[in-house]
Design a protein that fits this description.
Layout: H1 34-37, H2 52-64
Length: about 60
């Protein structure tokens, strides 16, 4: 598992990689749009998590349309 977001390259703050309880991770409490997940390059799928900033940016982008 990578600690970098596959979309922007920033740290994804993955709780599992920070030796924290994965269920306390921000992503367990967030709805991540499947359209955003589809943007992850095939070679990175299942290997790293999208960061919270990319989720927020995507939602703002979608709100404008």
């Amino acid at each position: 598992m990578s600690d970098q977001c596959p979309l922007c390259g920033s740290g994804n703050r993955c709780a599992a990689l920070l030796d924290e309880n994965p269920r306390d991770c921000w992503c367990f409490h967030a709805a991540i749009p499947k359209e955003l997940l589809a943007r992850i390059p095939v070679e990175a799928r299942g290997k790293s998590c999208v960061c919270e900033s990319c989720v927020r940016a995507y939602r703002m982008e979608e709100a404008k349309t």
